Amino acid sequence: MSSTRVVFLLVPKLHLLDLAGPAQVFSTANDLGYGYQLSYVAEVEEIATAQGVPVKAQLHWPELGPDDLIVVPGWRSPRLSPVPPIGPETKQRLRTHHAAGGSVASVCSGADALGAAGLLDGHRYTTHHDLTEELAARYPKASIVRDVLYVVDDRVITSAGIASGIDLALHLVAVERGAEAAARVAREMVVYARRNGDELQDSVMLRHRGHLSDLAHRVQDVIDARYADRLLLAELAHEVGVSERTLTRIFTNATGLTPLRYQQLLRLERAEHLIGHGATVESAARTVGFEDARMLRRLRARTAEPVAG
Q: Partner of 300 at 20 to 30 A CA spacing, among 2, 279, 306, 307?
């Protein structure tokens, strides 16, 4: 598995949780073997945080490729400063990385830095609810999306306030490393994989893991790990020690889906991701477990439940 580098761009008065939340997700994913390298850069060596704890950063940027990610945590901002706290060279770094095929992300007021670099123009984005009007006025060429946890638009990934950075990072792990990886990270961190307000942007795993049924979670663990396999209902029921009827009832009540439908959505989401990265429909169908592309085409055409990818 190739490693993904995640660079956190630190600015003065940053909020610790804006940084620590997504950093913990990617760090935990790396501890579990999913291949993430974390770096912290800034325009000065020591950053004063909004909570009073100073943090150290490096001044030199690591070499980045198109599979890597830059994250800008937010900073204390009851109101936005007249000028975002990043200089011309940093803005150019953000632009260059995105132009080369890389992804950029922000938490809370970090969207202001992306806007200053020109990366919000023509894109949908979100931010903390206290800042939506100011950012909408500051970047009229962009489209603000209110009351959602995060928005993904052409490798510009923005999240709302503070703790939503965790949701954003879990979504990226789900898309890049699979639903099983994100579920393992969420459970290791003892956080709920919460549903996003914008159905077009959340992952299948995030959308259907926000429940308290241990049995349903155990079944999802099996399906997440083996979504490309042919899984019989009897096999799943035996795995968790209940009847097929009981499994279907509990799983459907918890997730809103049958086990088969959940598996199909996982396959569809992964296939969409592969197709978006250049795979043919036929190749993607085989990779995710369909015998041929006909079923995948039918699901793509008729599904009423949007998927990320």
A: 2
Assigned architecture for domain 211-302: Orthogonal Bundle (1.10)
Q: Distances in Å between the alpha carbon of 287 and those of 144, 269, 278, 281, 299? A: 36, 12, 13, 10, 16
- 3-state SS of 161-216? CCCHHHHHHHHHHHHHHCHHHHHHHHHHHCCCCCCCCCCCCCCHHHHCCCCCCHHH
What element of type H or E holds 69?
strand 69-72
DSSP state of 61: P
Structure confidence by residue, pLDDT tens digits, 190-246:
786 554 434 333 467 667 877 878 899 899 989 988 999 999 999 999 999 999 999
Domain 4-176 fold: Rossmann fold (3.40.50)
Residue extents of the structural domains in the chain: 4-176, 211-302
**Residues paired with residue 104 on neighbouring β-strands, in sequence order:** 70, 156
Cα–Cα distance between 5 and 197 in angstroms, integer?
28
Q: Give Cα 11 to chain centroid, integer Å.
A: 22
pTM score of the predicted model: 0.69
**SS3 call for 63:** coil
Residue 111 CA to residue 116 CA, distance in Å, equals: 9
Asked whether the beta carbons of 262 and 207 are under 8 A apart, the reply is no
Burial label for 189, CB within 10 Å (0-12, 13-18, 19+), is middle
- Could you report the per-residue pLDDT of 30-40, keeping only the tens digit for each? 999 999 999 99
